[in-house]
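does this look right to u?? magnesium ion version
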Amino acid sequence: MAKSGGLTTRGPRNLLRQIREALAGGTGGAAVASAQQRLDLVVGIIARSMVAEVCSIYLRRASGELELFATEGLNPEAVHNTRLRPGEGLVGEVARLAQPVSLSNAPEHPSFSYRPETGEDPFNAFLGAPLLRGGRAIGVLVVQNRAARVYDEDELEDIQNIAMVLSETVASGGLLAEAELRDVELAPHRPERLSGQKFAEGLAVGRAVLHEAPVPPDKLLADDPVIEEQRLRKGLADLKSGIDLLLEGGQGKLNGTPYEVLETYRMFADDRGWNRSLEEAVRSGLTAEAAVDRVRNEHRARFASARDPYIRERLHDFEDLANRLLRVLMGDDPHDRQLPDDAILVARNLGPADLLEYPRSKLKGLLLEEGSPAGHAAIVARALQIPCVGRLSGLRDRLSEGDPLIVDGETGEAYLRPRPDMLTAVQSRMGVREQRRAEFDQLRDTPAITMDGTRITLLTNAGLAVDLENLDMTGAEGIGLFRTEFQFMVADELPRLTAQTALYKLVLDAAGERQVTFRTLDIGGDKILPYLEPDREENPALGRRAIRLGLDRPALLRMQLRALLAAAAGRELRVMFPMIAAVEEFRRARDLVDREIEWARRRGRNLPRTIRVGAMIECPSLLWHLDALLPLTDFVSIGTNDLMQYMFAADRTNPRVADRYDPMSPPALRALREIRQRCSDHDTPVSICGELAGKPLEAFALIALGFNRLSAPASGVGPVKRMILSADLKAARRGIEPLLASSASSVRGELETLARKLNLAV
Ligand code: PEP
Ligand code: MG
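got this back:
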């Protein structure tokens, strides 16, 4: 059928504008009284423009029923009376599929359901499009014609655009009053609880802020489609070149996305279907942003029910790509985002640097659909003391921006749109936590001494300027691990010597008499610096990480050592190297320290009072070469996060394997005991600075193994101190001995029993 008088001839943009005006409450200055009248007006406009005899809008009630809200052409009596059960009729089919349905002879379709009250018997042709929100159908827009006509591609495109404008306007509250919408399910609005995994301790109550911001309804319609098309083209080109830049490792916004994912993005960015859908959406009158949003919603809807993990993964990739394109188009910079004061950031996954881009003061919590507790985003969340729950599958589909949320970092759960009683319960738990925190505050100046008199040195891990406040707040005796790479990660380019020196000075000043152990740059794995390490690596965790990079690019390491020596002038400097896998590496690294000392001396620079150089034990290879390594070191520190990942060959950032093995297992505990014993033999001070040191039960095992220097994340210092104060170390040592001989893969249960038996505060 020819499309005479259809949207293309009248201009889809005009139509969309008319609809928007009608929805806004007035056309040409004539104010329209009620929402119902406005909806009636809209269906009239659509029917006329699409040369359809019928146009109807159905909205979904919370019961799942689709209620006829407005119609042109059907019996007006049916409005608010006709309700279709979920899946009932063709309208139900459109909602179920979340896709448009076009039929020339509707009554013949098996799903056709005849409702006499509507008087729809004479209509043969049917075109329905879902009103989508977050990949869910919140309603259906239908046009019908008497003649058994075939709707063409353009009409399909048009009705989807109209449906989008409608759904955005309805969902943003721009059309119907709250009372009218009381149980219309515009967005998921029921309370829900999702179970995930705890990434960072603590509780938070706040409102959802989506890391990928949605498009506001006032940005849906193009003023000038030609300009929008140009914007889209430019946006796509910028998107592609931005990804290329990241792939090449060139200058660019810091990003925690792995290479493989970027490659997939690059491939999808060229996907013809995607590009075509975007162009068509823009040509029909949407802004470039709205086009991206519409296509994203359609993808979501289409794949939402897919069970195949591969397809779901690809859907995520497409979504991320769409989000990236939106950010390019909107020039969205998290620095500039207006966050509410109680923001709970929601994302699929985050790189540590992404997280650092948000203003800390407003971030109350973090919810991730994926991620891993040993990944650096989780470490940064713990460092910032932001409660974080990860691995919440389906999270983003169940949320809208601004939804009330509870982050329960104690149980690893998230509550979406919590009921008031849930809120009260959590607030009272927050009160208890506050009390406990106050107890920890009271312990702040109490030395960590076990009941039977062994002094344990409790230090904290740091890496950001905010951590320095924690030093005083927690009462830690110093910084056992200062992750110098964080400064590099928040910068877009290599921090200069002066900037490095200034930070290290600040740290030492804040620490005063307390010890600080700086770790040299630990880049690689999930800590990516595009401006530094351009090479693609198949296996970054096993790649040119940390000291390997430092030794390959000695100028970089020397600059850092120079900054450290300068900052520590007249004081003690403690510096250690990460990821030492061979004794020779330590020798070479130490040699660079000596060369820098010599360099400074020749220039008459003021040197540190004492210089202690240490190695991190993170690679299992060292376990059998400690007799060669320890005489060369002034101290060592065990990085259990990496040591465990390498011992068990389980990538700490990969959710599928990250916690398949328990460090509270005989092989891991025996390895730790072995290191401790060798260090005693050589009189080498040894500490533990992995996350294990910050968990009371794990720290209990560590002190039972004979470790007396622990460096924990700030949030772990209080709880671990409380545990130490309640510990009978001799009994603990006796108790752990048989566990080391166990054949079980985990002795966590036995440790818990032991802790209970000893009345330990864990
Ligand atoms: C570790 O590996 O345990 C460690 C402390 O270093 P990072 O977590 O920064 O790799
Ligand atoms: Mg490490």
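The mean pLDDT is 86. idk if thats expected tbh
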